Amino acid sequence: MKTYKRLAVAFTGPSNSGKTTLIIKISNILQDNGHKVCIVKHDPKDKAIFDKEGKDSFKFSQTGADVAVVSPNKTTYFKKETSSIYELIEIFKDFDFLLVEGLKTLPLPRICISRNKLDVNYFDVSDTLAIDDSIDKDTIPEDMNVLDLNNPEQIVQWIEKNSKKV
User: In b/e form, how buried is each residue of 72-89, taking b as 16+ CB within 10 angstroms?
Assistant: First the structure.
């Protein structure tokens, strides 16, 4: 029986900074290295749509009930209220790495993604910056760790070293 690492790290940054693209690259590298990865995406404006009108699962969900759709290769769970990160960890249960996009108040090691402009509002909730060449390194506080946004392997090394056991 495999023992899972259950390590978590979060990513933050302004819209269109490259968070999703980086998380996909990180997830692929970790999985290529034999790790089980789970991802949580914060949707603060409740914009995400996961079901199509007219489908049975949509009709079930419209009743107000929580719904699970089970198929040979996946389980989809529709819950009518928000979940804490701890509830999600228990749902995922067995994983090596949990990658969280957003939820900047969570007490997790956090990488702030910045392209084109630094947003100092993220500095207080971030441990490290991942930047590209569009950012002037002289504008970064000296005590802030800096990673190359275009070097996902370097970011994976940071994650392996700094993730929090959950």
Answer: eeeeeeeeeeeeebeeeb
Examine residue 160 and state whether it is found in any structural domain, yes or no. yes
Helix, strand or coil, per DSSP, at residue 138:
helix
Question: Do the domain assignments include residue 52?
Answer: no
Cα 36 to Cα 54: distance, rounded to the nearest angstrom: 34
Tell which residue, 74, 72, 77, has the closest CA to residue 88: 77
Closest CA to 154 of 11, 22, 36, 6: 22
The model scores a pTM over 0.85: yes
How does pLDDT run across 60-117, given as a tens digit for each residue?
888 888 888 888 998 888 888 889 999 999 999 999 999 999 888 899 999 999 999 8
